[in-house]
Amino acid sequence: MWIGDRASLARQRTTTPRIPDDARVQRSLDAMRAAFLELVSTRPLEEISIKEICDTAGLSYPTFYRRFASKEELLNGIATEEVRRLLASGLSARTHRTDGGSASAMCAYIEAQRPLWRTLLTGGAATAMRQEFMRLSREFTDTQPRINPWLPIDLAVPFVAGGIFEILAWWMKQRDDYPTSNVVKLMDALIIDTTARSRNIDLLP
């Protein structure tokens, strides 16, 4: 009976968005998020059970399944929210020509939440985070005018998104006082100067 209830809750989660409707629900969501990040900072996602997440958060199985169908869905929610904010910060800086540009804006966003991003980029969530980074980068690219139409989109997205991800993941493995300005320069030289500045290149048909 309980298994059926759990399956039913999981199906509802995949079809009906659950929007926090009071402070208690929000506290439960925050506790699950914090517990998950604590666990995934130490070992791969596949080694973490939902029971561990619930025990660490001090919540029950039914509470978890009222919100999420799986631990992967919990991770995807965290990853999607953070990657969207990161990409939006870079896009806003480019659109408004903010000093330092998109690389500076993205690095500033991550620097402000370094513990969270270190967990997401270098812990057990890194593989899923990279996939989400790729997916949302393509989504953002589809809404923007092409700066270099000669560059095939199916090459540009994995190249740029993968490059930015690897630079940021490398950064999160460095000492805490590693200069953020160095990361901005690396991103600008390796990614932005190569792909995000207008240039004319003739490719043979």
Write the layout of secondary structure elements.
Layout: H1 2-15, H2 23-40, H3 50-57, H4 61-67, H5 71-95, H6 101-112, H7 114-122, H8 126-141, H9 153-172, H10 180-195
Keywords:
mainly alpha; 2 domains
Strand content: under 5%
Question: Using only CA atoms, what is the Rg?
Answer: 20 Å
Low-confidence stretches: 12-17
Largest sheet: none
- The portion of residues assigned to helices is over 70%
What is the averaged pLDDT score? 84
What's the shape? Answer: elongated
Q: How many H/I helical runs?
A: 10
The arrangement of helices and strands along the chain is: HHHHHHHHHH
| Distance between the amino and carboxyl termini | 63 Å
Structural class: mainly alpha
Mind explaining what this structure looks like?
With 205 residues, the protein is mainly α. It has two domains: 68 residues, no CATH class; 122 residues. 71% of the residues lie in helices and 0% in strands. The chain contains ten helices and no strands. Helix 1 runs parallel beside helix 4. It starts with a helix and ends in a 10-residue tail after the last helix.
What's this model, at a glance?
The protein is built from ten helices and no strands. By secondary structure, the chain is mainly alpha-helical.
